[in-house]
Amino acid sequence: MLIVALDPPYDADVLKWIEYRYNLLKPYVQGFKIGLPAILEVGFKAIGKILKNYEGLLIADLKLADIGDIMCISAERAWIHGFNAIIAHTFVGYEQALDKLSKLCRERMLKLILVVSMSHKGSAEFIDRHVEEFSELARKVGAWGIIAPATRPNVLKRIRAFVGNNIKILAPGIGTQGAEPGTAICNGADYEIVGRAITHTENVLENAFKIIEQQKEEVAKCRGLQ
Ligand code: BMP
Known about the structure:
Helices cover 46% and strands 17% of the residues. The chain has helices at residues 14-25, 36-50, 68-80, 94-108, 131-140, 153-163, 183-186, 196-199, 204-222; strands spanning 2-6, 31-34, 57-64, 85-89, 111-115, 145-147, 168-172, 191-194. Helix 4 links the parallel strand 4 (85-89) and strand 5 (111-115). The two termini are 19 Å apart.
């Protein structure tokens, strides 16, 4: 299961860049994640037009970290323009923050994805000290999914063991950040998020196929099918 992160480089024509990759990849992947590099340049509205009627996961990655009322306004904007999932940080806590955001997400049928650990090393400095508490809060608010690192298998496994199987785990860190395709799924993730190793290459489709193939092989290996 593969989600493609569409993060255009600063000098790209953002809409053309997204449209090209989206059209090539959409038959083969389970979703797309759009983050700040694109949203800041052209906004949800323009991006939403390109991705209109897409039936897979369409994640607005704002990594929201604000008071509840303001996170709700941002989430509502993502929803209005066709996104069906939104990423928020967990450290803002429950009261007057994730209580409100999770309620809005339920009303709008928007999938709430909470960051409980990150793929870069600095995640160990503060965030990872609270992985269990964040996972607990994600369960409490009924989050659809959580973000956990493909780059640190032990953290990922610990999170899966803690949350059980009723919550999706989305794992970034494959490819450019060093983790091998398929390994996060073997360690408990449902989806691997891959960006630059696909989107910042000459042969976007070819590289996507390679990653999908590697995922299949790795998963077959770890599940003892090979
Ligand atoms: P790439 O495969 O190019 O490294 O992209 C990873 C994507 O996942 C980026 O969009 C990044 O913002 C996101 N991400 C991450 O890398 N680590 C995290 O902990 C959380 C993320 O959302």
